[in-house]
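Example 3.2
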Amino acid sequence: MARAAVTIYSGVLNGAVTVDTATSIDASDGMYIPAGDQHDRIMLFVDHSTSVARTMTVKASQPPTGYTQANWPPSFRAASDVTIGLNISNASPKSFIGPFESAMFFNPASIGTSGSAGDILLDFSANTTGTIYAVKLPVGSGG
C-alpha cells in the first residue's frame, strides 16, 4: 500500500486554525506531508491514543533517481533519520513536532509519494494509533 497523506492546514497570523478532520495515523504504510519547499514552516500535532511508548521517524532526504549519496549535495548527504518518542507519561500523549530543516528532510519527486518534490516522509512504530495534524505557519510568525 502507499503512504497516506497528512492534510496541511494553513496558519493565520494573529488568528486561529480550525482543523475540520483528523488524519488517522497509518503505522503500517507510513505517511507523507506534501510540504513542497515549506519544511521550515510545518508543525505537526500528534495525538497518540495510548500511553504505551511509541515512536515516529522523520525520514532523511534521499537522492533522486540517477544520483547516489556520493554525488548528492553535502548538506543532504549528512542528513539522517530523526526518531521522536511519543511516550509522554499520561493517558493520551500529545506532541508538537517541527518545524523541519529543508536540507535534511527534502525528498525529490522520484522518492516522495505525492509525485511532487518536497514530501516529508514519516514512519511509525508498530501499533501506533491516534491522529496527526500538520499546520503551515504563516509568513512573519518568527520563523
